[in-house]
Specification:
Number of helices: 7
Structural class: alpha+beta
Largest sheet: 4 strands, antiparallel
Shape: globular
Strand order of the largest sheet: 5-6-7-8
């Protein structure tokens, strides 16, 4: 009787039911998606341009608000893997406004795979140079091994790679064809009305700052905006009332 296993990566790509694969840990579709992410990431990273769009500038907060002539979200992504001591310029790494630099994300995955291969083979091989292109090539060469022997970790790592590629594409304005603009809704990351519903999926991305999220995140953001902008009036006792309360 064949040994059917559920692909652990399918849920990371939004598949409601995981594909069943014979003997292999990762289905062919997810293997292809992982390979495409590792191929797209260095290409998108090389295209990053920190020049402000239409000459606009961004500001760094603090005691003094200083204008900078660059796109901060792009500068965050250009941080090298070795600069782990640098705080992101936009939000905190991993939160809704900031995202871990591509080089640091790849370095963490490389380190994880190296440790897993030590446990499997008893020896630690040399890692790649800590450049985005070199690390993606190193991971691509070992992707087949990871799909067979390190599949459980690939579930989270695949989702992170997918999000990283989407973030870089949004920063580059490389949105899929037939992406639909969402007019009148400011981006929670940069306050610009530059949100798009990406075709072929449920992702929403900002073409200005590169913020990405799910369709559910977008609807939660709309509800927050609606609650904040709900008309209010001053009551006779000086209290403030929602205009639609008690209806």
């Amino acid at each position: 009787m064949s040994d059917y296993r559920a692909c652990p990566i399918c849920p990371a790509y939004g598949h409601e039911e995981a594909n069943l694969w014979v003997r292999e840990r990762v289905c062919e579709h997810c293997r292809g998606r992982l390979a495409s992410h590792l191929a797209a990431l260095p290409a998108q990273w090389k295209r990053l341009d920190a020049t402000p769009i239409r000459g606009e500038t961004e500001r760094v907060g603090g005691t003094w608000r200083v204008s900078v002539g660059a796109r901060l979200a792009v500068l965050d992504q250009l941080v090298p893997a070795t600069a782990t001591h640098l705080a992101p310029l936009v939000g905190d790494a991993g939160d809704q406004e900031g995202r871990l630099p591509a080089a640091q994300l790849l370095a963490a995955i490389v380190d994880d795979w190296q440790s897993a291969r030590v446990l499997a083979d008893g020896r630690r091989e040399d890692g790649p140079l800590l450049g985005v292109t070199a690390m993606c090539a190193w991971l691509s060469d070992r992707l087949e091994w990871a799909c067979r022997h390190h599949a459980d970790a690939l579930a989270d790592q695949g989702a992170e790679l997918r999000a990283a590629v989407g973030h870089l594409r949004a920063l580059n304005g490389d949105l899929p064809r037939r992406s639909r603009m969402l007019p009148g809704v400011p981006c929670p990351g940069c306050d610009q009305t530059a949100l798009y519903h990406l075709s072929g999926g449920d992702d929403v991305a900002c073409s200005r700052c590169g913020l990405t999220g799910s369709w559910e995140d977008y609807h939660r953001w709309i509800k927050l905006l609606a609650a904040y902008m709900r008309p209010k009036f001053q009551g006779p006792e000086g209290d403030r009332y929602d205009a639609d309360r008690d209806q």
